[in-house]
Amino acid sequence: MSKILVVAEAKDGALKKPTMELLSKLKQEGRSVEAVVVGSGVKGVADALAGYGAEKVYVADDATLTMYATASYCTAVADAAGQSGATMICFSVSETTRALAPAVAARLDAAYISDASAVTFNGDDVVVNRPAMATKVYQTVKYKHDGIKVLSVRSGAFDVVPAEAKGANVVELSTPAADDRVKVKEILKEETGDVDLGEASVVVSVGRGVKGEEGIELVRPLVKELGAAYGASRAVVDSGWMPYNAQVGQTGRVVTPDVYFAIGVSGAIQHLAGMSGSKLIVAVNKDPDAPIFSVADYGIVGDLFKVVPILLEEVKKHK
């Protein structure tokens, strides 16, 4: 049976949920799995990786890896792949891995399939379902390459199973040399204190129907009461009502939460591309013919300025 290497992601000393999802799926499939984690202060997640099924954990932990650099991270992952003898390398989709996964595939002369929403294993055969053309169609893709396979999987594609308490079999990797052609001077990160869209189990997004910043603030208490992440359509972001990192859609973030509230969102195909994989979708729009209702599990036709306060009160009652 082939061996799979999972490229793990961590934040603030904890594994990111998409990594847990990926490991959980492979463990349920009975696959032979190892993991690699790269960064600064990441060695502490090795036991967690073992708990989710990683038989061996390759660690590149050094202060020089604090800031992401494709060349250095690619070298570390390729080193782990060589030592493990893995025939498949799996990534969860993120801003980082959108750059790293194809770089690793090119380095290893591997076949690469991106943005999987479902994966089926049949022995060494791997069949992938992935959205295309802004989720207008879904492709079924099968590897024909005999060498190493590289795959990136969307967050929310699999469920997380509880981890076991285990000590990791750790292999420390050599610190990769820095790329002299590129120097990262600074990373500017917006500290909002809000729930991250990629990690949230509940997302509330607003569209042009909120009409402006006053409407944004009307919805915010509902977001906080639900413990949700706050998202937006491109129209809202382009109008300057919310920052770009809140944008959900084809040119923004792809989210797959347990529950997605679309409030005042018309449902343009570009927005649907970023949220149609949500497990449950609730839409609020005054237009009964709005495209968002075609993907919604529950729909409320009404003025959001009247509906949102009622929703807020109902949420408070049930809490």
* Bulk shape: globular
The CATH topology annotation of the largest domain reads as Rossmann fold
**CATH architecture level-2 label of the largest domain:** 3-Layer(aba) Sandwich
Helix percent band: 25-40%
Report the major sheet: 7 strands, parallel
Number of helices: 8
Mean pLDDT comes to 92
Q: Extract low-pLDDT stretches.
A: none
Tell me the Rg in angstroms: 21 Å
**Assigned CATH superfamily of the largest domain:** HUPs
Structure notes:
- This protein has helices at 17-28, 46-51, 70-84, 97-107, 213-226, 234-238, 269-275, 304-318; strands at residues 3-8, 10-11, 14-15, 32-39, 57-61, 88-92, 111-116, 118-122, 125-132, 137-142, 149-153, 170-172, 202-206, 229-232, 259-263, 280-285, 298-301.
- It has 319 residues and is α/β, with parallel strands linked by helices.
- The protein has two domains: 3-172, Rossmann fold (3-Layer(aba) Sandwich); 202-318, Rossmann fold (3-Layer(aba) Sandwich), CATH 3.40.50.1220.
- The model has no long low-confidence stretch (mean pLDDT 92).
